[in-house]
Write a structure and sequence with these properties.
The protein is of the alpha+beta class. The chain folds into two domains: 2-142, no CATH class; 216-232 and 285-463, Chitobiase/beta-hexosaminidase domain 2-like (Chitobiase, domain 2, 2-Layer Sandwich). It has 16 helices and 13 strands. Strands 3, 4, 5, 9, 10, 11, 12 and 13 form an eight-stranded mixed beta sheet that branches.
Length: 464
């Protein structure tokens, strides 16, 4: 993206930087009277986009750089959804932003990523960047400064009378006070310095207690990392090229990708069987899946937890019997979804001819028995499924994010990532005792350039 690269380079030209050591850009800043100057704010943006939190997200870094550059040039009036979509995400000029919600979804992710930065690497930044909801203009806010008075002075102030008290003191007692005052003060200061040293050496001690979340705290716990299953995108390509289904049993067996036996399973009309077997043996996952995994990792860390990522082909059924797990993609990319299908109502199906459908096992009044997503649909309708279930062992939770195509899975991820969508739904289904039941919900969205736009809930179920 030449346009995006130009924007980044323009922002950081002639800014004052310290490049004396490789880690200089990550040094924590010291608050000063110039912290709110334009060069300091540009330097803050540079530190953010070069930080580990943003280093792997070019899209979010470009978006932040673009809006901050305009704001620092005094061109806030030019920061709007239509312009951002055109300039940053290369949408056509005059595109329909009400149908294509890429700017809204990316801005929501940017807000979450900024929160993570200022909780971790940027915890000591004197100024933070906030993007208020409902708009895209960044605000540079001065963080509340800590008291400049050392604790020892506060201790002394606390025991010193506001006005002199003329109480007669004997020479002996005065001498005793003078004798013990200096050692006692040294002890107090030593204890304070030791405490500060321990907190500095062990950031986890000084860090605030991780925040909780009504939904994500049930999937990300301190006791163990959550298993995230990376989809097998090569399997999807194999499905499409061979026209053959590979269920979980065949996936575990692996015969479909093994030598002559695998070639025999491919239809006689399919040319280049050796090429197809080679494809089936490779390990692919999409960039959309990678972005979702990185987002999940950020979310887990914000809650004091972490994730373990495993490729779908490397797992066995026992891996789903303990702990929490998140599965990305439909059964065509992740056959492990089959393990959970007996307990859910909405089943995604692929005819391997370009059309998908969602089967409604037990339709409620007014619901169809299936929803179809056809390749020739002028509205490009696709469907996403969110299923929050118990794991196979009943001692943890599982989250399935599926879709009739990549954009459907993205719609499912966008829904659970956006609290403005997720939390009202959770509030609606919460039980009388305040607990959250397991649930599944079906989303309808539209595929615009392989991206999902604004989605709506078609149907949902709770499980007792």
């Amino acid at each position: 993206m030449v346009k995006c690269a130009t924007t980044v380079s323009k922002l950081f030209v002639d800014t004052a930087t310290d490049r004396g050591t490789p880690d200089a850009r990550f040094r924590r800043p010291v608050a000063s009277s110039t912290a709110e100057s334009e060069p300091a704010r540009r330097e803050l943006v540079r530190r953010i986009v070069e930080s580990p939190t943003f280093a792997r997200s070019e899209r979010l870094s470009t978006l932040l750089t673009y809006i901050c550059d305009l704001a620092l040039k005094g061109r806030e009036s030019e920061i709007n959804e239509q312009r951002i979509g055109h300039e940053v995400f290369e949408r056509p000029a005059g595109y329909d932003s009400s149908a294509d919600g890429i700017v809204r979804s990316q801005a929501s992710r940017l807000r979450q990523r900024l929160d993570l930065y200022f909780q971790h690497e940027g915890a000591d930044e004197p100024v933070r960047i906030v993007i208020p909801r409902g708009g895209y203009v960044p605000v540079f806010e001065t963080q509340a400064a800590a008291s400049s008075e050392p604790p020892a002075v506060l201790l002394l102030d606390a025991v010193t009378p506001a006005a002199p008290v003329h109480t007669p003191v004997s020479a002996g007692s005065a001498s005793s006070l003078r004798r013990w005052f200096a050692p006692a003060l040294c002890v107090v200061l030593a204890l304070l310095l030791a405490t500060l040293w321990i907190y500095d050496r062990h950031p986890s001690i000084s860090a605030a207690t991780p925040a909780s979340h009504h939904f994500w705290s049930l999937l990300f716990r301190n006791s163990q990392p959550t298993l995230v299953v990376a989809p097998d995108s090569g399997l999807v390509l194999y499905h499409g090229a061979s026209g053959q289904d590979v269920n979980l049993s065949a996936y575990l067996d692996g015969g479909y990708r093994a030598g002559p036996d695998g070639a025999n399973r491919i239809g006689p009309a399919v040319p280049q069987k050796e090429w197809l077997l080679n494809l089936a043996n490779r390990r692919y996952t999409s960039i959309v899946d990678l972005e979702m995994i990185l987002h999940l990792k950020d979310r887990a860390r914000s809650l004091g937890s972490d994730i373990t990522v495993r490729y779908a082909r490397d797992l066995r059924p026992d891996d789903f019997k303990a702990g929490d797990v998140i599965l990305l993609g439909s059964r065509e990319a992740d056959p492990w979804d089959e393990l959970f299908h007996p307990g859910i109502n909405f089943i995604l199906e692929d005819d391997y001819m370009g059309d998908f459908s969602v089967r409604n096992r037990n339709p409620r009044p007014g619901e169809p028995s299936r929803w179809d997503s056809k390749s020739d649909d002028p509205q490009h309708r696709v469907y996403g499924l969110v299923a929050f279930l118990p794991n196979l062992g009943g001692n943890g939770n599982a989250l399935l994010l599926e879709g009739t195509g990549m954009s459907g899975t993205q719609a499912a991820m966008d829904f659970v990532s956006d609290d403005t969508l997720l939390l009202p739904f959770i509030q609606k289904i919460r039980l009388s005792d305040g607990t959250l039941p397991h649930f599944e919900l079906l989303l309808e969205t539209h595929n615009m350039g392989a991206s999902a736009v604004r989605s709506q809930i078609l149907a949902w179920r709770t499980m007792k």
